[in-house]
Each structure stands twice: as structure tokens, then as C-alpha cells.
Amino acid sequence: MDIQQLEPSKILLIGELCEDRYLFGSVDRISPEAPVPIIKQLGLDVREGMGGNVRNNLESLGNEVTFLHNNEPVIKTRVIDRAHNQQILRIDEETHLNPIDMESLPNISEYDAILVSDYDKGFLPLHVLYILSNESYLRGVPMFIDTKKSYLNGITNCFIKLNASEFKSLTCPPHRSNHTVITRGSKGASYRTTNYPAKKVTLSDPTGAGDTFIAAFTSAYMSWKDIPKSIEFANICAAVSVTKLGCYAVTKEDIYEQSKTI
Prior knowledge:
- The chain is of the alpha/beta class.
- Helix 1 (51-60) packs across helix 4 (209-224) and helix 5 packs across helix 6 (252-260).
- Strands 4-1-7-8-9-10-11-12 form an eight-stranded mixed beta sheet, with helices on both faces. The chain has a four-stranded mixed beta sheet with strand order 3-2-5-6.
- The chain has helices spanning 51-60, 126-138, 164-168, 209-224, 227-241, 252-260; strands at 10-15, 17-30, 37-50, 64-68, 74-81, 86-94, 113-118, 143-147, 159-163, 179-183, 189-191, 194-196.
- It has one domain: UDP-N-acetylmuramoyl-L-alanine:D-glutamate ligase (3-Layer(aba) Sandwich).
- The N and C termini lie close together (11 Å).
- The mean pLDDT is 94.
């Protein structure tokens, strides 16, 4: 697979944005007050998560991205033992997210593709996905959706990415007009009756791997218009992602190095 064949696309990304904080420290003893570790803070790393991670991966792969997202803060703080890169605790800070203002949507005909990163936190109500999928189909703009919603009836003619747990939890499966790709962690990803295996790598952190997959799949499909080839490419990118700690934007150099070992 020649990654130099990737062509840049103009992509409208819509989804939730969060701030990922990684509080690194050392654990030397257990608290005398309770059976919990005491962590001595050594540093703090702040990155964009959720849709922000998708954007960073899209841009790292050469795309031009317009990102519409929530303004309300969503913060995820992960406390990590630096000696072992082991996550000890995660603290989520969330407020109510106002739904997207549909009046703020640009003319989608000006984009090569629409990508929705929906963590189902209120910014993208189901009816918005209905409207977007219908509009994208009418205007001939491919739409890619990564969602945590369990009810997908009414969404049509899209590429939908779900992980295995999300797919199992669906109360209403995607319409048959959609192309549904199911990611299965270390087992790869499946489409229809075929499973596309993932390369075995040393797992560091699965955080953000799904974001990387959908960004890579979208980038590849817009270049090659080939679903199996795009899944294989996305598997390679996700394999790079899980070898890194936290959200990570894969580079073409990463992909080239990973491809050489397949």
C-alpha cells in the first residue's frame, strides 16, 4: 500500500471536543488513610480528545478540516504512574452540552466529505444525524459517522463505524443502505462477512484508537474509493495509535514504518 497515493480532501468534521489531561507521577507508597496509592505529581500533558483527536489525525494525514464542535468544556483527567505508564484513575468533568446550531452549518456542497464524531453527549441529537445523512446524500457528499448512539434507524447512505461492544448494544441496527464497519480491537475490523485482521503490536494505550481509525478510513476511502483497502489502512493507523500513550496523531512516517513490518 503506497501511502504517497493519499490525496488531501476538504472535510467538514462535526462532533464533540474534549480536553484530555494526563497527570503523570510516581507511586512510591500506599496511603495510611486508605488502601490507595499516593501519587507524586511529576508533570501534566494536555491534548485535544474525542473530535479533536479525529481532527488532528485527519490533518496529520494531509486533509483540510473545518471542525464544528461544542463550546462547553469537557475534561478527562487520567492519572498515570510514569514508571509503568499505567493509568490509575480517570476523572471526567462534564457540563450539559447545547445541541449544535443548525444555522451555523456551512454549505456542505463545498466539502469533499462530512465526518461525524458523535460521543452522544448531547451536541448531536439523533434528528441532526437524520438531516445530515439526507442532505449529504442529496448533494452527493459522502458521510462518515463514528457514533455511540444505540438507535440508528433513519440514518441512511452513510459509512458507519462502531466498535464491537457498541454494535452488540444496538437497539436498532443501521439501515441496509449504510456501509457498517465494526472494529474489534486486536482482532481487526469486519465489514459484511469479512474480517480484516490487525497486526499484532505491543499495546501501550488504546485511548483514541477509534478516532484514529475513522480518520484514517475516511482519508483512505476519499483517495481510493475502496472499502477493504481503506479498512486495512485504518487498521495500520490504529495499530500505530495503540503503541503510543494517550491521543496521538499518526504521521505518514509512522504508517510507512508500520507497513514495513506487515
